[in-house]
Amino acid sequence: MGRLVAVTGATGFVGPHLVAALARRGWRLRLLVRRWSPLPSLAGVDADLILGDLSSEQALRQLVDGADAVVHAAGLIKAKADRDFLPVNRDSAALLSALAPDAHVVLLSSLAAREPQLSAYGASKRAGEAVVASRGGPWTIVRAPAVYGPGDRETLAYFRAVKSGIAPQPRLPTARLSLIHVADLAEALALTVERPPPRSIYEIDDGRAYTYADMAEAAGQALDRRPWRVAVPRRVMACLARWNGVRQALGGGAQILSGGKVSEIFHADWSAADRRLAAAIGFQPRYDLASGFRDTILWYRAKRWL
């Protein structure tokens, strides 16, 4: 019958790429979905679907029953209230760990977990790591940096700004950050399932650290623009975050730019310092920043997003 991998977050941004990477390696797939509906992002993939969400113990029990590996790729990146992060980013990880004691649990985390004091999001990811790392069975935690690529709606705003001639960045001249194309992240996660490394918390990226100037140059080349790099002061970004809070209080949807996100943005170093995982699993990134941005923008244009 083949090996069985259970996956959360299969219909999100990273999920379809991850499912495709696992399917290419011959894994049998069981996916958690929140509603019965066509899944165009997973076309051609043969998988068992479990209806439910991350708060349903019954659904998660069905998801992991008999699984050789569990990839917990679902997560909450924006919320109306700080308290909303923990049920998704910590409690679901704890429940999955308890329900699959013998399976290899791979948790997709974030570099934000390195600095949990900066935001409720980072604190919740760190808390999720802690419950997975305390389990008796096999586990691997993969901290991802900023992820971009086809299907990403959060980075789309940046590309739209560059297309208009402006490349916004925090007024933080020493800032360094890592990035990774979503297809490369999916490949790294699939390799982690295929070739489990020693139990540890790992970081993954495309092998380089970048500046915001590098991002502006790569985006400008891909869009055939020479954008004006605008350094945004922290107080201006904080005002925008407060305005987002007002909009949310008045019934608007959750916004990515919050007070915690501003603290993350103005942290000087989000570059990956640990590349043990790539060596352990034999991961070689396909995309650098220039080729990755070109691929992303071609996809946006094909979908008429940009």
Brief sketch in words of this structure:
About 40% of the residues lie in helices and about 20% in strands.
- Counting H and I runs of at least 4 residues, what is the number of helices? 11
What class do helices, strands and sheet pairing give? alpha/beta
CATH topology of the domain at 4-147 and 179-206 and 272-286: Rossmann fold
The CATH homologous superfamily of the domain at 4-147 and 179-206 and 272-286 is named NAD(P)-binding Rossmann-like Domain
Task: Please give the alpha-carbon distance between the first and last residues.
Answer: 43 Å
> How many strands, which pairing sense, and closed or not: the largest β-sheet?
7 strands, parallel
Q: How would you spell out the order of helices and strands?
A: EHEEHEHEHEEHEEEHEHEHHEHH
Quick tags:
306 residues; alpha/beta; Rossmann fold; 7-stranded parallel β-sheet; two-stranded parallel ribbon; 11 helices; 40% helix
What is the fold's blueprint, element by element?
Blueprint: E1 4-8, H1 15-24, E2 28-33, E3 47-51, H2 57-64, E4 69-72, H3 85-99, E5 104-110, H4 120-133, E6 139-144, E7 146-148, H5 156-163, E8 166-170, E9 176-177, E10 179-181, H6 182-194, E11 201-203, H7 212-223, E12 228-232, H8 234-249, H9 259-265, E13 269-270, H10 276-281, H11 289-302
Parallel strand pairs: 1-2, 1-4, 2-3, 4-5, 5-6, 6-11, 7-10, 8-12, 9-13
Helix pairs in contact: 1-6, 3-4, 7-11
